[in-house]
Each structure stands twice: as C-alpha cells, then as structure tokens.
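Supplementary Note 2. Why include the ligand at all?

Several targets in our set were suspected to adopt different conformations when bound, so apo predictions alone were not considered sufficient. For every target with a known small-molecule partner we therefore ran a joint prediction. The input for NAP is given below.
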Amino acid sequence: MVLNNYKCAILKVKLSAQTHERQTRFAHRWYWWPGVGCAPTVLAQDPATVTIPYRNPKDVERLKSIFSPSELARIQFLAANLNNEAEVENLINQMVQVDVLIHLVGGFSMGKTYEYSLENWKRDFDINLNTTFLVCKHSLKRMLQQGYGRIVTVGSRGAVEPVGELAAYCASKAGVVAFTKAIADETKGTNITANVVLPSVIDTPANRASMGTENAHQWVKPESIAQVICFLASEAAKDIRGAAIPVYGNI
Ligand SMILES: NC(=O)c1ccc[n+]([C@@H]2O[C@H](COP(=O)([O-])OP(=O)(O)OC[C@H]3O[C@@H](n4cnc5c(N)ncnc54)[C@H](OP(=O)(O)O)[C@@H]3O)[C@@H](O)[C@H]2O)c1
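The joint prediction is reproduced in token form.
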C-alpha cells in the first residue's frame, strides 16, 4: 500500500489477529508525513480498527480523500483535545477496546532560555508531556481491565542528546522518556508493555520547507519509524519493556 501525504497521530491496535472478537485501535494524532507512514503501515499489517482523534475537521476531510473505502471502514475519527482530560476520557469510552496506543502528538518552539517565555515553556510541556500523560493514563486503565496492551510513545533524539535553543522541547521529551519507562516498570508482570521511539530529523514536508532538501536523504523516513512502532506493538515485542529506541536515519 502506498499512500502519500497523510496526517498521522496515535494509533491503537489489537494484537490478537487470531481472535475474531471485535478489534478497535486507538490512534491519537496523525502527523503530516509523506510517503508510506505510520497509519498506512499499521492498517496494512494488522486487521484492527484505528481511532484517530482530531481537532480540526479539515484534517478528517483530507484523510477521507486519502484512504481507500476499505481502509476508511476500519477508521473512526473522534474529536478531542488531548490536553483536556474529560475529552480524553470520553474518547477512550467511545472505543470498544484499547489494545495499542501510539501517541505521536508533539511539537516545539525554539529560543534561547534566558528570553524564553513561561507561556511557551508551558505550551511545550502541554503538547509533549501532558498529552502523553493523559492518553497513557486512560488507555492504561482500559488495558489493565483487558489484561493486555501495547503503548508506544514518541520522544526525540533531543530527549537524550539535548541541544541549545530547544531546552523546553528537550526537557519535555526527556519527561516522555522517563514517564514511559515508569509505566513499563509499573506494568511488569502484566501483558502490557510501554516503549518510546526517539526520532532524529524526520523527512517531512515541514522540515524540507524549513531546512531545505540538501540533507533530506539522511533524515529518517516516516515509514521507517512506523515499522519500528509496528514491531513494538506486535506480539514479537512482548518482552521489550521500557526501551528508548533511537531511530536516527543517517544523522
Ligand atoms: N518532525 C521531526 O523532525 C521530529 C523529530 C523528532 C521527534 N519528532 C516527534 O515526532 C512526532 C511527530 O512530529 P511531527 O513533526 O510530524 O508533528 P506535527 O506535524 O507538528 O503534528 C503534531 C500533531 O499533533 C497535533 N496536536 C497538537 N496538540 C494537540 C492536542 N492538544 N490534541 C490533539 N492533537 C494535538 C497537531 O494537531 P493540529 O494540527 O490540530 O495542531 C498535529 O496534527 C512529535 O511527537 C514530534 O515531537 C518529530
């Protein structure tokens, strides 16, 4: 399956493809990633249903024009601000099952720390860490009831190799790594796992627009990250807990 230009976010998936019970997957946000990315990869590899939260109805319209009718039949779009606990809870309540959570929401702004506003600092923590807390908290509740779950969060290389003028981003992504490892520890002895992937620069239209294309061949491709995420969501990864996996491409 080759799909171009889709917006991607979080996916939840059912892992027991052998069972015939209804499967519902939980997808948070979808990034705008070119090529074969996370959502198409998940849809191709697993017969589950994907739930995609959105804030802007225009994103849904765009996605509807990208996926095939058979793929759309497996996707439910639900409006939710993932910084709002009541909305996250309501979103989860509308899902039949929450087997896999892939939380892709994130963002940053740049600036020197001595002039960085508290408002921007809080915004970075809201989008990166607080959304992660809320979606993990409420997904985990369901996973513990079900006795099964896979959680994959998205950090950043900056979480483990912090760089200047991105202090809030690096600190909040480091929080995502620590938080994910804490969940992994908390769920030892269960059939629930939690791991985090650490992309470097992703080959996105936004990065090509802001940084040019000269070095784009070295950047990690969205579909490559998607493959790692799908592996972590699979049965084959049932014994991987609390891993922070670098997905750096060639940089
Ligand atoms: N791009 C890179 O080079 C790179 C490198 C390392 C790590 N990462 C990480 O990889 C992930 C994807 O990056 P990206 O560049 O593809 O991101 P992106 O295109 O900026 O997408 C972020 C998505 O998050 C959504 N979002 C933000 N706040 C939300 C909220 N409160 N509730 C629901 N949705 C919300 C945005 O929706 P709206 O459109 O409605 O705002 C947007 O669709 C992020 O976690 C990022 O930190 C990216």
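The beta strands are 6-7, 25-27, 32-33, 50-54, 75-79, 100-103, 149-154, 192-199, 244-247. The chain has one domain: 9-247. Comparable summaries for the other entries are listed in the accompanying table.
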